[in-house]
Amino acid sequence: MHRSSPTGYRPPVDSGPSLPRPRDPDVAALLPIVQRVVGARVADPTTAEDLVQETLVRVLAAADRIDPGMLEPYAISTAKNVVVTQWRDQDRQRRNLHRALDPGAPELPDEELVSREEQTAVAEALLRLPEEDQQALLAHEVSGQDTRSIAEECGSTAGAMAARLHRMRARMRVEYLLALEGTEPPTDRCRPVLLAASSGDRRRAREADVDRHLLECSLCARLSRPLVERRECRGDEAHVPIRTPSDVVVARQAGREVAERAGLGCTEVTAVVTVVAEVTGNILRFAGSGEVVLELLDAPRPGVRIIARDTGPGIPDVERAVEEGYSTGGGLGLGLPGIRQLMDDCTIESGAGRGTTVSLTKWCRPDER
Amino acid sequence: MSADVQDPQTGPLPAQRGSMNDAGPPEAAPTAPRTAVGDVRRDYLTAFLGYLPRHDEAALHRAYEIGRSAVASGVGLLELARVHHEVFLRVLQDTPPEELAGVVGAASEFLLEVLAPHDMAQRVFLDKQTPPPS
Hints:
Structural class of chain B: mainly alpha
Strand content of chain B: under 5%
Strand content of chain A: 5-15%
Order of helices and strands of chain B: EEHHHHH
Shape of chain A: elongated
CATH architecture of the largest domain in chain A: 2-Layer Sandwich
Shape of chain B: globular
CATH topology of the largest domain in chain A: Heat Shock Protein 90
CATH class of the largest domain in chain A: Alpha Beta
Largest sheet of chain B: 2 strands, antiparallel
Radius of gyration of chain A: 37 Å
Helix content of chain A: 55-70%
Oligomer: heterodimer
Number of strands of chain B: 2
Protein backbone atom coordinates (compact mmCIF):
# COMPACT_ATOMS: atom_id res chain seq x y z
CA MET A 1 0.00 0.00 0.00
CA HIS A 2 1.36 3.35 -0.98
CA ARG A 3 1.46 6.30 1.34
CA SER A 4 0.49 9.51 -0.31
CA SER A 5 1.96 12.96 0.12
CA PRO A 6 -0.34 15.82 1.18
CA THR A 7 -0.93 16.65 -2.46
CA GLY A 8 -1.68 13.08 -3.29
CA TYR A 9 1.34 12.86 -5.54
CA ARG A 10 4.51 11.11 -4.50
CA PRO A 11 7.51 11.91 -6.71
CA PRO A 12 9.76 9.03 -7.64
CA VAL A 13 12.58 8.43 -5.18
CA ASP A 14 15.76 10.14 -6.26
CA SER A 15 18.34 7.38 -6.30
CA GLY A 16 21.31 9.65 -6.94
CA PRO A 17 22.58 11.95 -9.60
CA SER A 18 20.54 11.52 -12.74
CA LEU A 19 20.73 12.77 -16.28
CA PRO A 20 18.99 16.08 -16.87
CA ARG A 21 15.51 15.42 -18.13
CA PRO A 22 14.58 17.07 -21.36
CA ARG A 23 11.50 18.62 -19.82
CA ASP A 24 9.36 18.16 -16.70
CA PRO A 25 5.67 17.79 -17.37
CA ASP A 26 3.39 19.74 -15.06
CA VAL A 27 2.18 16.74 -13.08
CA ALA A 28 0.49 18.82 -10.41
CA ALA A 29 -1.76 20.28 -13.09
CA LEU A 30 -2.80 16.75 -14.15
CA LEU A 31 -3.62 15.64 -10.61
CA PRO A 32 -7.20 16.98 -10.34
CA ILE A 33 -8.35 15.48 -13.64
CA VAL A 34 -6.74 12.11 -12.90
CA GLN A 35 -8.28 12.07 -9.43
CA ARG A 36 -11.67 12.87 -10.94
CA VAL A 37 -11.44 10.11 -13.57
CA VAL A 38 -10.31 7.50 -11.05
CA GLY A 39 -12.64 8.71 -8.28
CA ALA A 40 -15.66 8.34 -10.57
CA ARG A 41 -14.84 4.67 -11.09
CA VAL A 42 -13.36 3.49 -7.79
CA ALA A 43 -15.26 3.98 -4.55
CA ASP A 44 -12.56 2.99 -2.10
CA PRO A 45 -10.46 6.12 -1.45
CA THR A 46 -7.27 4.20 -0.64
CA THR A 47 -7.46 2.15 -3.82
CA ALA A 48 -8.30 5.27 -5.82
CA GLU A 49 -5.26 7.03 -4.40
CA ASP A 50 -3.03 4.11 -5.39
CA LEU A 51 -4.44 4.13 -8.93
CA VAL A 52 -3.94 7.92 -9.25
CA GLN A 53 -0.29 7.49 -8.34
CA GLU A 54 0.08 4.56 -10.71
CA THR A 55 -1.38 6.72 -13.50
CA LEU A 56 0.94 9.62 -12.78
CA VAL A 57 3.99 7.35 -12.73
CA ARG A 58 3.02 5.99 -16.16
CA VAL A 59 2.42 9.50 -17.52
CA LEU A 60 5.80 10.63 -16.20
CA ALA A 61 7.50 7.63 -17.76
CA ALA A 62 5.96 8.40 -21.14
CA ALA A 63 6.24 12.19 -20.94
CA ASP A 64 9.22 12.30 -23.33
CA ARG A 65 7.14 10.74 -26.10
CA ILE A 66 4.02 12.86 -25.71
CA ASP A 67 3.28 16.19 -27.14
CA PRO A 68 2.73 18.65 -24.26
CA GLY A 69 -0.69 19.52 -25.60
CA MET A 70 -1.73 15.84 -25.53
CA LEU A 71 -0.56 15.21 -21.96
CA GLU A 72 -3.98 15.63 -20.35
CA PRO A 73 -5.87 13.33 -22.77
CA TYR A 74 -3.06 10.83 -22.37
CA ALA A 75 -3.36 11.01 -18.58
CA ILE A 76 -7.14 10.49 -18.80
CA SER A 77 -6.76 7.43 -21.04
CA THR A 78 -4.02 6.05 -18.83
CA ALA A 79 -6.18 6.53 -15.73
CA LYS A 80 -9.07 4.67 -17.38
CA ASN A 81 -6.75 1.86 -18.46
CA VAL A 82 -5.24 1.58 -14.99
CA VAL A 83 -8.71 1.29 -13.47
CA VAL A 84 -9.80 -1.34 -16.01
CA THR A 85 -6.61 -3.31 -15.39
CA GLN A 86 -7.29 -3.21 -11.69
CA TRP A 87 -10.88 -4.46 -12.20
CA ARG A 88 -9.60 -7.25 -14.40
CA ASP A 89 -7.03 -8.28 -11.77
CA GLN A 90 -9.71 -8.29 -9.07
CA ASP A 91 -11.98 -10.43 -11.21
CA ARG A 92 -9.19 -12.88 -11.94
CA GLN A 93 -8.34 -13.13 -8.26
CA ARG A 94 -11.98 -13.73 -7.37
CA ARG A 95 -12.34 -16.44 -10.01
CA ASN A 96 -9.20 -18.21 -8.85
CA LEU A 97 -9.76 -17.75 -5.16
CA HIS A 98 -10.99 -21.32 -4.76
CA ARG A 99 -7.62 -22.57 -5.96
CA ALA A 100 -5.99 -21.03 -2.93
CA LEU A 101 -8.30 -22.92 -0.57
CA ASP A 102 -6.77 -25.88 1.17
CA PRO A 103 -9.69 -28.14 2.04
CA GLY A 104 -7.63 -30.34 4.31
CA ALA A 105 -7.74 -29.11 7.89
CA PRO A 106 -4.44 -29.39 9.71
CA GLU A 107 -4.34 -32.33 12.04
CA LEU A 108 -4.56 -31.26 15.65
CA PRO A 109 -1.94 -32.64 18.01
CA ASP A 110 -4.40 -34.69 20.06
CA GLU A 111 -6.34 -36.09 17.09
CA GLU A 112 -4.08 -39.05 16.62
CA LEU A 113 -4.31 -39.91 20.31
CA VAL A 114 -8.13 -39.67 20.27
CA SER A 115 -8.29 -41.76 17.13
CA ARG A 116 -6.10 -44.43 18.72
CA GLU A 117 -8.29 -44.47 21.85
CA GLU A 118 -11.40 -44.88 19.74
CA GLN A 119 -9.87 -47.75 17.78
CA THR A 120 -8.90 -49.48 21.02
CA ALA A 121 -12.44 -49.00 22.37
CA VAL A 122 -13.96 -50.46 19.20
CA ALA A 123 -11.65 -53.49 19.41
CA GLU A 124 -12.44 -53.98 23.09
CA ALA A 125 -16.19 -53.64 22.49
CA LEU A 126 -16.01 -56.24 19.73
CA LEU A 127 -14.18 -58.68 21.99
CA ARG A 128 -16.96 -58.37 24.57
CA LEU A 129 -19.45 -59.88 22.11
CA PRO A 130 -19.80 -63.66 21.80
CA GLU A 131 -17.41 -65.20 19.27
CA GLU A 132 -20.21 -66.09 16.85
CA ASP A 133 -21.59 -62.55 16.93
CA GLN A 134 -18.13 -61.12 16.33
CA GLN A 135 -17.76 -63.20 13.17
CA ALA A 136 -21.20 -62.29 11.87
CA LEU A 137 -20.77 -58.60 12.57
CA LEU A 138 -17.31 -58.47 10.95
CA ALA A 139 -18.54 -60.42 7.93
CA HIS A 140 -21.45 -58.02 7.42
CA GLU A 141 -19.97 -54.64 8.40
CA VAL A 142 -16.33 -55.06 7.33
CA SER A 143 -16.34 -57.66 4.54
CA GLY A 144 -19.72 -56.54 3.20
CA GLN A 145 -21.22 -60.05 3.17
CA ASP A 146 -24.99 -59.94 2.66
CA THR A 147 -27.45 -60.93 5.36
CA ARG A 148 -28.87 -63.87 3.43
CA SER A 149 -25.53 -65.68 2.95
CA ILE A 150 -24.55 -65.09 6.59
CA ALA A 151 -27.94 -66.52 7.62
CA GLU A 152 -27.41 -69.61 5.44
CA GLU A 153 -24.01 -70.24 7.04
CA CYS A 154 -25.59 -69.99 10.48
CA GLY A 155 -28.65 -72.04 9.57
CA SER A 156 -30.97 -69.09 10.05
CA THR A 157 -33.19 -66.87 7.93
CA ALA A 158 -32.29 -63.49 6.45
CA GLY A 159 -34.92 -61.68 8.54
CA ALA A 160 -33.79 -63.30 11.77
CA MET A 161 -30.17 -62.51 10.95
CA ALA A 162 -31.02 -58.87 10.20
CA ALA A 163 -32.75 -58.58 13.58
CA ARG A 164 -29.80 -60.27 15.26
CA LEU A 165 -27.33 -57.90 13.56
CA HIS A 166 -29.47 -54.99 14.76
CA ARG A 167 -29.17 -56.25 18.36
CA MET A 168 -25.42 -56.82 17.93
CA ARG A 169 -24.91 -53.26 16.73
CA ALA A 170 -26.96 -51.97 19.67
CA ARG A 171 -24.82 -53.94 22.09
CA MET A 172 -21.64 -52.92 20.28
CA ARG A 173 -22.55 -49.23 20.74
CA VAL A 174 -23.06 -49.73 24.47
CA GLU A 175 -19.84 -51.70 24.93
CA TYR A 176 -17.94 -49.12 22.89
CA LEU A 177 -19.16 -46.27 25.13
CA LEU A 178 -18.27 -48.23 28.26
CA ALA A 179 -14.82 -49.16 26.88
CA LEU A 180 -14.15 -45.59 25.83
CA GLU A 181 -15.13 -44.37 29.28
CA GLY A 182 -13.02 -47.16 30.84
CA THR A 183 -15.72 -48.01 33.33
CA GLU A 184 -18.25 -50.64 34.28
CA PRO A 185 -21.90 -49.83 35.06
CA PRO A 186 -22.50 -49.22 38.77
CA THR A 187 -25.78 -51.16 38.98
CA ASP A 188 -27.34 -54.26 37.40
CA ARG A 189 -30.00 -52.08 35.78
CA CYS A 190 -27.53 -49.90 33.87
CA ARG A 191 -26.53 -52.27 31.06
CA PRO A 192 -30.09 -53.37 30.15
CA VAL A 193 -31.17 -49.72 30.21
CA LEU A 194 -28.29 -48.68 27.95
CA LEU A 195 -29.05 -51.59 25.62
CA ALA A 196 -32.71 -50.57 25.42
CA ALA A 197 -31.70 -46.96 24.74
CA SER A 198 -29.27 -48.12 22.08
CA SER A 199 -31.78 -50.36 20.33
CA GLY A 200 -34.15 -47.43 19.76
CA ASP A 201 -37.08 -49.75 20.43
CA ARG A 202 -39.69 -47.67 22.25
CA ARG A 203 -41.58 -50.61 23.72
CA ARG A 204 -38.38 -52.10 25.08
CA ALA A 205 -37.30 -48.70 26.37
CA ARG A 206 -40.62 -48.29 28.16
CA GLU A 207 -40.42 -51.76 29.67
CA ALA A 208 -36.90 -51.06 30.93
CA ASP A 209 -38.10 -47.63 32.18
CA VAL A 210 -35.09 -46.14 30.43
CA ASP A 211 -35.97 -42.50 30.90
CA ARG A 212 -36.51 -42.81 34.64
CA HIS A 213 -33.18 -44.61 35.10
CA LEU A 214 -31.44 -41.89 33.08
CA LEU A 215 -32.86 -39.31 35.47
CA GLU A 216 -31.50 -41.25 38.44
CA CYS A 217 -28.10 -42.51 37.17
CA SER A 218 -25.62 -39.81 36.21
CA LEU A 219 -23.20 -42.23 34.46
CA CYS A 220 -25.92 -43.70 32.25
CA ALA A 221 -27.34 -40.23 31.61
CA ARG A 222 -23.93 -39.14 30.30
CA LEU A 223 -23.15 -42.33 28.38
CA SER A 224 -26.58 -42.53 26.80
CA ARG A 225 -26.51 -39.00 25.37
CA PRO A 226 -25.26 -40.08 21.91
CA LEU A 227 -27.70 -43.01 21.97
CA VAL A 228 -30.68 -40.76 22.80
CA GLU A 229 -29.59 -38.13 20.26
CA ARG A 230 -29.42 -40.88 17.66
CA ARG A 231 -33.00 -41.83 18.56
CA GLU A 232 -34.16 -38.18 18.37
CA CYS A 233 -32.66 -37.85 14.88
CA ARG A 234 -35.73 -39.72 13.66
CA GLY A 235 -37.66 -36.52 14.42
CA ASP A 236 -40.72 -38.17 15.97
CA GLU A 237 -39.63 -37.72 19.56
CA ALA A 238 -38.44 -34.76 21.60
CA HIS A 239 -36.89 -34.85 25.08
CA VAL A 240 -37.04 -31.59 26.99
CA PRO A 241 -35.21 -31.36 30.33
CA ILE A 242 -37.21 -29.27 32.79
CA ARG A 243 -35.09 -27.29 35.22
CA THR A 244 -36.16 -23.64 34.94
CA PRO A 245 -39.39 -21.81 34.07
CA SER A 246 -38.01 -21.04 30.61
CA ASP A 247 -37.91 -24.81 29.92
CA VAL A 248 -41.72 -24.77 30.18
CA VAL A 249 -41.82 -22.58 27.09
CA VAL A 250 -39.43 -24.93 25.24
CA ALA A 251 -41.61 -27.91 26.18
CA ARG A 252 -44.77 -26.08 25.08
CA GLN A 253 -43.17 -25.28 21.72
CA ALA A 254 -42.11 -28.92 21.26
CA GLY A 255 -45.61 -30.08 22.23
CA ARG A 256 -47.22 -27.68 19.76
CA GLU A 257 -44.94 -28.86 16.93
CA VAL A 258 -45.62 -32.54 17.61
CA ALA A 259 -49.38 -31.95 17.93
CA GLU A 260 -49.48 -30.02 14.67
CA ARG A 261 -47.45 -32.72 12.91
CA ALA A 262 -49.88 -35.34 14.21
CA GLY A 263 -52.62 -33.40 12.44
CA LEU A 264 -54.61 -32.38 15.51
CA GLY A 265 -57.08 -29.54 15.11
CA CYS A 266 -56.46 -26.04 16.42
CA THR A 267 -58.30 -26.45 19.74
CA GLU A 268 -56.82 -29.91 20.26
CA VAL A 269 -53.32 -28.48 19.76
CA THR A 270 -54.13 -25.89 22.44
CA ALA A 271 -55.31 -28.72 24.72
CA VAL A 272 -52.01 -30.59 24.23
CA VAL A 273 -49.98 -27.44 24.88
CA THR A 274 -52.08 -26.74 28.00
CA VAL A 275 -51.34 -30.21 29.29
CA VAL A 276 -47.61 -29.77 28.61
CA ALA A 277 -47.71 -26.48 30.54
CA GLU A 278 -49.54 -28.14 33.45
CA VAL A 279 -47.23 -31.16 33.75
CA THR A 280 -44.04 -29.12 33.39
CA GLY A 281 -45.38 -26.63 35.94
CA ASN A 282 -46.01 -29.54 38.31
CA ILE A 283 -42.46 -30.83 37.81
CA LEU A 284 -40.99 -27.44 38.73
CA ARG A 285 -43.42 -26.91 41.62
CA PHE A 286 -43.16 -30.31 43.27
CA ALA A 287 -39.91 -31.94 42.13
CA GLY A 288 -37.66 -29.06 41.09
CA SER A 289 -36.53 -30.78 37.91
CA GLY A 290 -37.42 -33.59 35.54
CA GLU A 291 -38.07 -34.29 31.90
CA VAL A 292 -40.88 -34.18 29.38
CA VAL A 293 -40.92 -36.47 26.35
CA LEU A 294 -43.15 -35.67 23.38
CA GLU A 295 -43.79 -38.55 20.98
CA LEU A 296 -45.47 -38.47 17.62
CA LEU A 297 -47.60 -41.62 17.32
CA ASP A 298 -48.70 -43.25 14.10
CA ALA A 299 -50.44 -46.42 15.25
CA PRO A 300 -53.20 -47.44 15.73
CA ARG A 301 -53.88 -43.91 14.49
CA PRO A 302 -51.99 -40.61 14.56
CA GLY A 303 -51.61 -38.98 17.92
CA VAL A 304 -49.35 -37.47 20.53
CA ARG A 305 -47.96 -38.94 23.72
CA ILE A 306 -46.67 -36.74 26.54
CA ILE A 307 -44.57 -38.36 29.24
CA ALA A 308 -43.65 -36.16 32.20
CA ARG A 309 -41.18 -37.70 34.57
CA ASP A 310 -39.45 -36.53 37.74
CA THR A 311 -37.55 -37.99 40.66
CA GLY A 312 -39.22 -35.77 43.25
CA PRO A 313 -40.99 -36.75 46.45
CA GLY A 314 -43.81 -38.46 44.50
CA ILE A 315 -47.54 -38.48 45.18
CA PRO A 316 -48.43 -40.52 48.26
CA ASP A 317 -52.07 -40.93 47.26
CA VAL A 318 -52.54 -40.82 43.49
CA GLU A 319 -56.29 -41.46 43.66
CA ARG A 320 -56.80 -38.51 45.95
CA ALA A 321 -54.56 -36.32 43.81
CA VAL A 322 -56.77 -36.82 40.78
CA GLU A 323 -59.87 -35.81 42.73
CA GLU A 324 -61.14 -32.36 41.86
CA GLY A 325 -59.99 -29.60 44.18
CA TYR A 326 -57.22 -31.49 45.92
CA SER A 327 -53.83 -29.79 45.86
CA THR A 328 -50.80 -29.90 48.12
CA GLY A 329 -48.90 -27.24 46.26
CA GLY A 330 -51.20 -24.28 46.67
CA GLY A 331 -52.35 -24.68 43.07
CA LEU A 332 -55.83 -24.83 41.66
CA GLY A 333 -56.23 -28.49 42.41
CA LEU A 334 -57.30 -28.77 38.80
CA GLY A 335 -53.98 -29.94 37.39
CA LEU A 336 -54.21 -33.73 37.37
CA PRO A 337 -58.01 -34.02 37.02
CA GLY A 338 -57.90 -31.31 34.35
CA ILE A 339 -55.22 -32.87 32.20
CA ARG A 340 -57.02 -36.19 32.45
CA GLN A 341 -60.08 -34.55 30.96
CA LEU A 342 -58.14 -32.90 28.14
CA MET A 343 -56.45 -36.11 27.00
CA ASP A 344 -57.77 -39.47 25.81
CA ASP A 345 -55.55 -41.70 27.96
CA CYS A 346 -53.85 -40.87 31.24
CA THR A 347 -51.62 -43.02 33.42
CA ILE A 348 -49.99 -41.83 36.62
CA GLU A 349 -47.30 -43.85 38.33
CA SER A 350 -46.10 -42.49 41.62
CA GLY A 351 -45.59 -43.14 45.27
CA ALA A 352 -43.96 -41.46 48.24
CA GLY A 353 -40.24 -41.13 47.51
CA ARG A 354 -40.53 -42.82 44.09
CA GLY A 355 -40.93 -39.80 41.84
CA THR A 356 -43.79 -39.41 39.40
CA THR A 357 -44.37 -40.44 35.80
CA VAL A 358 -47.44 -39.11 34.03
CA SER A 359 -48.15 -40.57 30.61
CA LEU A 360 -50.85 -38.93 28.49
CA THR A 361 -52.07 -39.66 24.98
CA LYS A 362 -54.19 -37.65 22.60
CA TRP A 363 -55.44 -39.36 19.44
CA CYS A 364 -56.50 -37.64 16.24
CA ARG A 365 -60.22 -37.79 15.56
CA PRO A 366 -60.90 -39.32 12.13
CA ASP A 367 -62.20 -35.95 10.83
CA GLU A 368 -59.06 -34.09 11.94
CA ARG A 369 -56.78 -35.39 9.23
CA MET B 1 -57.13 -0.11 31.74
CA SER B 2 -54.00 0.84 33.51
CA ALA B 3 -52.69 4.24 32.48
CA ASP B 4 -49.12 3.29 33.16
CA VAL B 5 -49.18 0.33 30.77
CA GLN B 6 -46.99 1.04 27.78
CA ASP B 7 -46.55 -0.66 24.50
CA PRO B 8 -43.03 -2.05 24.68
CA GLN B 9 -42.55 -1.23 21.00
CA THR B 10 -44.22 2.13 20.58
CA GLY B 11 -44.33 3.76 24.01
CA PRO B 12 -47.43 4.99 25.81
CA LEU B 13 -50.75 3.93 24.39
CA PRO B 14 -53.45 6.46 23.59
CA ALA B 15 -55.87 7.26 26.35
CA GLN B 16 -58.99 5.15 26.80
CA ARG B 17 -62.04 6.12 24.86
CA GLY B 18 -65.74 5.50 24.73
CA SER B 19 -66.86 2.08 25.79
CA MET B 20 -63.56 1.27 27.44
CA ASN B 21 -64.17 3.95 30.04
CA ASP B 22 -67.63 2.61 30.58
CA ALA B 23 -66.34 -0.89 31.00
CA GLY B 24 -65.80 -0.76 34.72
CA PRO B 25 -64.29 1.10 37.65
CA PRO B 26 -61.13 3.11 36.90
CA GLU B 27 -58.59 0.57 38.16
CA ALA B 28 -55.87 2.63 36.55
CA ALA B 29 -56.29 5.62 38.80
CA PRO B 30 -53.40 5.79 41.25
CA THR B 31 -55.72 5.75 44.24
CA ALA B 32 -58.12 3.11 42.93
CA PRO B 33 -58.00 -0.26 44.66
CA ARG B 34 -56.68 -3.13 42.59
CA THR B 35 -59.17 -5.71 41.45
CA ALA B 36 -58.72 -9.13 39.93
CA VAL B 37 -60.35 -8.02 36.67
CA GLY B 38 -58.15 -4.92 36.59
CA ASP B 39 -55.05 -7.07 36.99
CA VAL B 40 -56.22 -9.39 34.23
CA ARG B 41 -56.95 -6.42 31.95
CA ARG B 42 -53.51 -4.90 32.54
CA ASP B 43 -51.68 -8.20 32.06
CA TYR B 44 -53.79 -9.05 29.04
CA LEU B 45 -52.92 -5.83 27.22
CA THR B 46 -49.20 -6.12 28.00
CA ALA B 47 -48.99 -9.78 27.01
CA PHE B 48 -51.05 -9.34 23.84
CA LEU B 49 -48.92 -6.41 22.72
CA GLY B 50 -45.88 -8.59 23.38
CA TYR B 51 -47.35 -11.39 21.27
CA LEU B 52 -48.20 -9.27 18.23
CA PRO B 53 -44.70 -8.54 16.89
CA ARG B 54 -43.15 -11.97 17.42
CA HIS B 55 -45.96 -14.55 17.76
CA ASP B 56 -43.70 -16.47 20.14
CA GLU B 57 -44.45 -19.32 22.52
CA ALA B 58 -43.36 -17.33 25.58
CA ALA B 59 -46.16 -14.79 25.01
CA LEU B 60 -48.68 -17.61 24.56
CA HIS B 61 -47.49 -19.08 27.84
CA ARG B 62 -48.16 -15.70 29.47
CA ALA B 63 -51.67 -15.84 27.98
CA TYR B 64 -52.17 -19.27 29.51
CA GLU B 65 -50.91 -17.98 32.88
CA ILE B 66 -53.36 -15.09 32.68
CA GLY B 67 -56.19 -17.57 32.14
CA ARG B 68 -54.93 -19.71 34.99
CA SER B 69 -54.73 -16.83 37.43
CA ALA B 70 -58.19 -15.73 36.27
CA VAL B 71 -59.57 -19.13 37.24
CA ALA B 72 -57.72 -18.99 40.56
CA SER B 73 -58.96 -15.48 41.41
CA GLY B 74 -62.54 -16.12 40.33
CA VAL B 75 -62.56 -13.99 37.20
CA GLY B 76 -65.28 -15.55 35.07
CA LEU B 77 -65.55 -16.31 31.40
CA LEU B 78 -67.85 -13.33 30.76
CA GLU B 79 -65.34 -10.95 32.29
CA LEU B 80 -62.50 -12.52 30.33
CA ALA B 81 -64.52 -12.13 27.13
CA ARG B 82 -65.09 -8.46 27.92
CA VAL B 83 -61.41 -7.85 28.67
CA HIS B 84 -60.44 -9.54 25.43
CA HIS B 85 -62.92 -7.39 23.51
CA GLU B 86 -61.63 -4.18 25.08
CA VAL B 87 -57.99 -4.96 24.45
CA PHE B 88 -58.73 -6.16 20.93
CA LEU B 89 -60.65 -2.98 20.10
CA ARG B 90 -57.89 -0.84 21.47
CA VAL B 91 -55.26 -2.60 19.40
CA LEU B 92 -57.43 -2.49 16.28
CA GLN B 93 -57.69 1.31 16.56
CA ASP B 94 -53.94 1.55 16.01
CA THR B 95 -53.69 -1.18 13.37
CA PRO B 96 -53.12 -0.29 9.71
CA PRO B 97 -55.61 -1.96 7.37
CA GLU B 98 -52.98 -4.21 5.78
CA GLU B 99 -52.14 -5.73 9.18
CA LEU B 100 -55.72 -6.38 10.26
CA ALA B 101 -55.81 -10.03 9.20
CA GLY B 102 -52.62 -10.82 11.11
CA VAL B 103 -53.85 -9.10 14.27
CA VAL B 104 -57.21 -10.89 14.13
CA GLY B 105 -55.44 -14.26 13.77
CA ALA B 106 -53.08 -13.44 16.62
CA ALA B 107 -56.00 -12.38 18.83
CA SER B 108 -57.69 -15.71 18.18
CA GLU B 109 -54.56 -17.72 19.06
CA PHE B 110 -54.03 -15.62 22.17
CA LEU B 111 -57.65 -15.98 23.33
CA LEU B 112 -57.53 -19.78 22.97
CA GLU B 113 -54.59 -19.89 25.39
CA VAL B 114 -56.35 -17.58 27.88
CA LEU B 115 -59.51 -19.70 27.81
CA ALA B 116 -57.73 -23.08 28.02
CA PRO B 117 -57.63 -23.20 31.86
CA HIS B 118 -61.37 -22.35 31.99
CA ASP B 119 -62.02 -25.13 29.51
CA MET B 120 -60.09 -27.51 31.71
CA ALA B 121 -62.03 -26.43 34.81
CA GLN B 122 -65.33 -26.83 33.00
CA ARG B 123 -64.47 -30.35 31.86
CA VAL B 124 -63.57 -31.30 35.43
CA PHE B 125 -66.85 -29.81 36.66
CA LEU B 126 -68.90 -31.65 34.04
CA ASP B 127 -67.10 -34.90 34.78
CA LYS B 128 -67.97 -34.49 38.43
CA GLN B 129 -71.64 -34.00 37.50
CA THR B 130 -71.73 -37.11 35.34
CA PRO B 131 -72.80 -40.15 37.33
CA PRO B 132 -70.28 -42.99 37.20
CA PRO B 133 -71.22 -45.90 34.92
CA SER B 134 -73.19 -48.52 36.78
